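seq:
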Amino acid sequence: MIVGLISDTHGLLRDEAVAALRGSDLIIHAGDVGGGDVLDRLRALATLFAVRGNIDQGAPCSNLPESAVVQVAEWRIYVLHDIHALGLDPGGSGFRAVVSGHSHKPAVAEKNGVLYINPGSAGRRRFRLPVTVALLEVPAWNVRFIDLA
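struct:
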């Protein structure tokens, strides 16, 4: 199963991001969506799970949850926008992975059997940071970052 990971679109869903996520079995948006059209375009590709980020003040994004639990086969993934707001022990709570955004920096790390993934920012370039999405292969738990610009 392929899980498409995207974050920090800030209202801009690039055609390159759509192409990179096409073929995903499901997509997770880790917040700072920036507009309902982004959600609609992602829903056209696959089942979508999205959380609210700090810029998501207007409808329909303001109605998104602050966090989400995504079930992928027998595994659970916890999703939130800012990893610093994580208020639980993911491993002790039965999560195999945590997906977050906010920093605009693509990253992956494993700690105590939990995979922490930030797909980076897929919207407008911020400073000199890359513009990326990620693909998560389950059950291998391999993460591949795709540079968009």
